[in-house]
Design a protein that fits this description.
single chain; alpha+beta; six-stranded antiparallel β-sheet; four-stranded antiparallel β-sheet; 8 helices
Length: 331
């Protein structure tokens, strides 16, 4: 990783200060969603009249003894909820924050779009099967439309060195002669960058012809294996407490954005909806499936059925799969 100069550090501090100033300007309109455990809540509101989404969740506890000693002495308003034999349950409050251990993790999307609102709204899920024909005739054109709307600008800004360069953990030149085969590894914005058992990293590929796992072919197997090895090696080098068999690499389908990327998480990370079956496809399983496909180097994931889940507010459901379902019923 390249060493940052003073000018880069100053720009980074200025950008952080500007981003932090947005939070106090957030004006709440309503609570949009809350998880079943009550540890994460999504708020919708405005910042200077622009629509904004603010996600608030409990931050991870510190894992050093000195901090937890302070934690123990900070407990107040302790109320017993019940007891049975050796078990007792309580509610309590913290009288003051623990130094260097924030209580909350915030995620701000500003300005947000109607698609963001739909994504974070409570909604029922549907199981769909995407055949090669449905992919070719309906889903692929949908992907093309989304790419043309400019929603990948933030990805290209990172790849081309315009933003977030201070976060890049690995810049790999790639496998083989193709200069676009390289990739970047950086922290996922959903990670607190401290708690190793909740580690989340993101690998962004340089090439722009692979939008999703549907574009992967047998000819890409060597490239995928190269990325896997480099990602695992780099993560272990950065975090010596982590072994190879403590890491999970997977790809989403459908992904949030149509530029191929790989998620890297600690195996102990609590498996939420983003790691659910029919949402997260293991990289090793994808490689194995490609290797066993019949045909030459152009045989690939575009030629098989894929079954996955969609929310009822998703455009893929409302514009593609629901009309197809209703059409089947009418015949």
């Amino acid at each position: 990783m390249e060493v940052k100069d003073d000018n880069t550090s100053a720009k980074s501090k200025e950008a952080s200060a500007s981003a932090e100033a947005l939070i106090p300007r957030f004006k709440l309109d309503k609570i949009l969603n809350q998880d079943q455990g009550g540890r994460r809540i999504v708020l919708i509101g405005t910042i200077d009249t622009s629509p904004a989404l603010l996600t608030v969740e409990r931050a991870a506890f510190p894992n050093d003894v000195s901090s937890m000693e302070v934690f123990q002495t900070s407990l107040t308003n302790i109320k017993n909820l019940g007891d049975n034999d050796i078990y007792r349950w309580y509610l309590a409050s913290l009288s003051h924050a623990i130094a260097d251990s924030p209580d909350l993790k915030l995620t701000l999307i500003s300005p947000c779009t109607e698609l963001h609102v739909k994504k974070y709204s409570p909604q029922l899920l549907r199981m769909v099967t995407e055949t090669p024909k449905i992919y070719r005739d309906h889903v692929r054109p949908y992907m093309q439309k989304k790419r043309e709307e400019g929603r990948l600008n933030w990805v290209f800004n990172i790849l081309e060195g315009r933003t977030e360069q201070e976060d890049v953990m690995l810049r790999d030149p790639g496998h083989g002669a193709n200069p676009d085969d390289g990739f970047l590894l950086l922290p996922d914005l959903n990670w607190d960058r401290k708690t190793l058992t909740s580690l989340r990293l993101l690998a962004l590929v340089g090439r722009r012809d692979i939008w999703s796992l549907r574009d992967l072919k047998k000819g890409h197997v060597a490239w995928l294996k190269h990325m896997r090895e480099k990602i695992l090696d780099a993560t272990m080098k950065l975090y010596s407490e982590i072994d190879r068999d403590m890491l999970k690499l997977y790809v989403h389908y459908q992904p949030t954005y149509y530029h191929f990327h790989i998620h890297v998480v600690h195996i102990m990370l609590e498996a939420g909806s983003t790691q659910a079956t029919n949402k997260a496809f293991g990289l090793e399983n994808i490689i194995s499936q490609l290797e066993t496909l019949s045909g030459g180097v152009d045989a690939g994931m575009a030629h098989i059925n894929l079954t996955y889940t969609l929310g009822e507010a998703s455009e893929l459901w409302t514009e593609i799969f629901l009309p197809l379902k209703e059409s089947d019923r009418s015949h």
